[in-house]
């Protein structure tokens, strides 16, 4: 009968099969996306990559279902699962810890980005150097709204403020949408937007780094704004 080591190797091989299938599927979508008549596949692939946290949760669920099915098949083929299960425990425990840890990271990320924005009450546009800006003789409107938490003062809580930055052109078409974290009471404090000749720089306090938006907005930013928001 298989040993603990063989069951662990078996789990790795099966996981490799699943990952290979995912790689083949993504490669196929990429190939189809290059053909003009298959634009839907390109949009689907873009959506999967952009919503990578939900995609990762779906992959984890599929892997768990796959291993559950394999265990069921093992039992129906006449094997005594009760005797063999103790040998499977180390491999099951290892992968379960990996999956749970991954799921925890993903769900924490989703929870942190699930807040609602209130542009009526928490409009930071003027405070953070938004408004009407001109790039290459084209005018754009930059608006920054918050979720309303931790805006300084004794009544604020310790939660960071999740901000939503949107950019529209002079026809009112949404061109860019970005989410980032503001910590108002941090040191030396949250910096306003930096407006350059061909870019906008904003500060994400959660990642402790600056991010750049190319102006005029790139094709990727326009696709995100058009199909995902």
3D architecture notes:
The chain is an alpha+beta fold and 229 residues long. It is built from five helices and seven strands. The chain has helices at residues 4-33, 39-50, 52-76, 81-112, 219-227, and strands spanning 131-135, 138-146, 161-169, 174-182, 194-195, 199-204, 209-214. The chain has a four-stranded antiparallel sheet. Strands 5-6-7 form a three-stranded antiparallel sheet, with no helix packed on it. Helix 1 packs across helix 4 (81-112) and helix 3 (52-76) packs antiparallel against helix 4. The protein is elongated and about 75 Å long. It starts with a helix and ends with a helix. Mean pLDDT is 76; it is low at 151-157.
| Euclidean distance between termini CA atoms | 54 Å
Strand content: 15-25%
Total number of helices: 5
Strand order of the largest sheet: 1-2-3-4
- As a whole number of angstroms, the C-alpha radius of gyration is 24 Å
Give a short account of the largest sheet: 4 strands, antiparallel
List the secondary-structure elements in sequence, H or E.
HHHHEEEEEEEH
Q: What's the helical proportion of residues?
A: 40-55%
Judged by helices, strands and strand pairing, the structural class is alpha+beta
Point out poorly predicted stretches: 151-157
Oligomer: single chain
The residue-averaged pLDDT reads 76
Task: Tell me, briefly, the overall form.
Answer: elongated
Beta-strand segment tally:
7
């Amino acid at each position: 009968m298989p040993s603990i080591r063989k069951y662990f190797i078996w789990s790795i091989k099966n996981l490799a099969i699943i990952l290979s299938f995912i790689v083949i599927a993504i490669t196929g979508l990429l190939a189809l996306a290059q053909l003009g008549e298959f634009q839907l596949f390109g949009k689907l692939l873009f959506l999967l990559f952009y919503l990578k946290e939900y995609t990762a949760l779906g992959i984890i669920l599929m892997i768990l279902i796959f291993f559950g099915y394999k265990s069921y098949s093992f039992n129906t083929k006449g094997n005594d699962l009760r005797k063999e299960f103790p040998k499977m425990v180390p491999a099951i425990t290892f992968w379960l810890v990996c999956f749970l840890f991954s799921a925890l990271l993903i769900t924490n990320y989703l929870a942190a980005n699930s807040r609602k924005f209130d542009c009526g009450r928490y409009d930071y546009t003027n405070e953070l150097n938004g408004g009407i800006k001109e790039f290459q003789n084209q005018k754009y409107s930059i608006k920054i709204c918050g979720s309303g938490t931790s805006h300084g003062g004794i009544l604020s809580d310790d939660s960071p403020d999740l901000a939503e930055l949107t950019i529209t052109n002079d026809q009112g078409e949404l061109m860019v949408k970005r989410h980032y974290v503001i910590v108002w009471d941090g040191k030396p404090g949250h910096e306003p937007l930096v407006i350059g000749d061909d870019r906008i720089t904003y500060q994400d306090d959660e990642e402790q780094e600056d991010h750049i938006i190319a102006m005029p907005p790139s094709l990727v930013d326009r696709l995100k704004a058009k199909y995902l928001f």
